Amino acid sequence: MAEIDRARIGVWGPEGTMRVELGKIREFAKAVKDPNPVYADEAACVAPPTFLMTVAHWVGDLGATRSAVKLDYRRLLHGEQEFEYLAPIRPGDVLTFRSRTKEVFEKAGKRGGKMLFVIGETEYRNQRGTVVAYTRSTVIETADAVRA
Amino acid sequence: MATRSYEDVVEGQELPPFVVERLTRTDLVRYAGASGDFNPIHHDEELARAAGNPTVFGHGMLTAGFVAKCVTDFVGPASLRRYKVRFANRVWPGDTITCRGRVTRKYEEAGEGRIDGEVVATTQRGDVAVTGTFTAGLPRRGS
Fold first, then answer.
1. What CATH number has the domain bearing residue B93?
2. Which of B72, B81, B114, B130 to substitute to test the interface with A, most A CBs within 10 Å?
3. HSE-up (13 A, CA, CB side) for residue A99
4. Measured between CB atoms, which of B33, B66, B71 is closest to A33?
């Protein structure tokens, strides 16, 4: 089972930075099969809705920055993902991000045993200090190993 | 691309569907590279089988990306204020994924005209892969 350090819930982890590049946006848009020409237009471009998932390139494992919960990765499911957009993200922006465990709670599983829900939140600020987005992921640690 | 205006949307309106025909393993590899999500269960056939899967399967966020395209084709990428998805069933190479959406509410908030909508991605088997909701802030006609 997961080890939970309740005192660290809500505490932000260390900051990282990512530069938003037009080429990366084009590559990402192609991967989600979106030919919208705005993603190739330096002046008009805004990042696609799920582009912030590319932060994975720059942190490796976001979980490592959320020190409140040590999860058992053999029992982990990605349950939900939320994006809140507060200002446009454009090519040339340099985003500073930080992450925290926002909430941890348990629910009874369908086949008995407890399921642990962990909501992680990441905040993104641009080079002007404006918070441009939050992403929130819900990961679920199941009572049993995840079966196919 | 012109952004749709608030006046041009009605509650209950359906978003034009977006269909991805026959997902390929190359699609999964391309998304792994683009997103940085290199969990090998999405590209390493041997590892996927050893973990008890018939083969590799799609990243939940890849399907969520297809659904997001369906939404931004309707509202424009700069209009999106919130997007939330829940992962239900997995998608497999060869699957055809259909993304649909519907406007559920029209209202004023934060000084702009907003719409809420619900979205869903289903496979050719009728399985729901992803469900979700979105909020967009649309410009006024002529503004």
1. 3.10.129.10
2. B72
3. 22
4. B66
A3-141 is classed CATH 3.10.129.10: yes
Domain that holds residue B121: 9-138
Q: Is there a contact between B133 and B64 (Cβ–Cβ < 8 Å)?
A: no
Contact B54 A148 (CB under 8 A): yes
3-state secondary structure of B90: coil
* Interchain contact, B69 vs A30, CB within 8 Å: no
* Cα torsion angle, A45, A51, A56, A59, sign: positive
Tell whether B3 is covered by a domain.
Answer: no
Helices B60-75 and B25-35: angle between axes, nearest 10 degrees: 80
Q: What is the pTM of this model?
A: 0.93
- Average the pLDDT over each of A72-86, B16-30, B43-57, B114-128 and give the range with the smallest value: A72-86
Closest listed residue to residue A77, CA positions, set B3, B127, B89: B89
Instruction: Give A63-117 pLDDT, tens digit per residue.
Output: 554 567 777 766 778 899 999 999 999 999 999 999 999 999 998 877 767 889 9
User: What is the reported pLDDT for A148?
Assistant: 44
B142 near A CB under 8 A: no
Cα–Cα distance for residue pair A84/B54, rounded to 1 Å: 35
In a domain, B127, yes or no: yes
For residue A69, what pLDDT is reported? 77
User: Phi and psi for A115 in degrees, rounded to 5?
Assistant: -110, 135
User: Domain locations in chain A?
Assistant: 3-141
Crossing angle of the two packed helices B25-35 and A22-31, in degrees rounded to 10: 150
Our count of domains for chain B comes to 1
